[in-house]
Prior knowledge:
- By secondary structure, the protein is of the alpha+beta class.
- The chain has 2 domains: 4-210, no CATH class; 239-395, no CATH class.
- 27% of the residues lie in helices and 24% in strands.
- The chain is built from 12 helices and 17 strands.
- The chain has a 17-stranded antiparallel beta sheet, sandwiched between helices.
- The protein is elongated, with a radius of gyration of 24 Å.
- Residues 18-30 have low confidence and may be disordered.
Amino acid sequence: MFRIPQIIRPVLVLAVTALLAGCAGRHADSGGELPGTAALMRAVPSDAFSVMAAAHAADLMELLDSADALRELDLGRVLRRRAVLSSNYDGRVERLLVLEVAGDTTFVPDLSCLGSAARMSLSPDSQLLLISESANLLGAALRHLRAGSSILEAPGFTDALRAAGHEPCLILKNAGVDRWPVTFPQIPGLTPRHLLNFVRNATRWTVVLPELNHRGQLRVLPVQEEKDTYYMAAFGSLDASSSQLPAILPAETDFAVSLPLSKAEDYLEARERWLDANMQLVRYNKALDELRKKTRSNPRSWILSQGIRELALVRWDGSEILACRTDRRARTVETGPNPAPDYFGMLFGNLFDLPDESTCCTFGKWTLVGSVADLEKFVTCESRLESVPWSEKNKLAVVYTPEGTLCWTRQGIEIKMN
């Protein structure tokens, strides 16, 4: 069963990959009616950075960590009623549990498991029971109820709630990513500050849907306005394509990213729109011009001339390479100098920027880039993945680790834990 940190970590891996590889899909469809949990959201202060919601309190409790004191609450007859759990920050993380009691004023749970500071209060209309370990947060929630203001007025939140529908969900405010209860994955060459800044602006809200009846699966929905300043919106028009990377992955692969490309030019134009909207295009063009002078070739023109259909990064057993599949007929080429060092990282994102790109060679349909030692190690690898971790067709991006696989399609994002 998923717990909160287990849910959020794949989302961070996704966000990091989106930052570095530019993989993105269409933002969530926010049409439709608000789910019933919206009635409980009117107690949640507007500055909450995460909200969990479920049609049954029992399902919400199942998403909490096994050591969470809230799991010890005896919710008795309200276990089958709606519940919401928000997290706010006021010098420290504070939580508010909102339970639907529907006028049942006799339901008084024992709060001793939450410590001596825990308090509860009925809403003015006796429809909701509010519980918190923070008297300040409980008071703020009651003031929001009386004033008729809540997180429902936060820009885009109702869109995120509609996207979640009636399923148990976790809605994360990207602007509050530094409060998310999880450690960022370590990515060589990137600082935590760099990652935090990206996640803040990747999308406005991230909706995570743990599929409780399908153990080990998650769906992730980015929700934001159609603005190119949001990474997910800028790349929303990209078409899906096929990923053939699994066929060549070594058995010891510990991280791989596949970026299938229906048309490389569409990707480059989307990335340039995003850079422009975030006032980074001038710096990007300057770096591109410097690379052109250094290599005496136009990186963008060279990339487009190759007919690239898939670009991938593969890390295994302490080694890493780039793998590029084109629509050209495979050629037999001896290992030799790379004619386009740093091109992939410059045009497709920092994830495709290796410390040593001095050498390239062909491997079946693929052109491989990396150090001489890593290329030889990859080509002579005798053990490949025995089972294909994802299907080939209709992919916008794929992230693979031994712990799980993330597939982004036009239908959304699915994370399957191994």
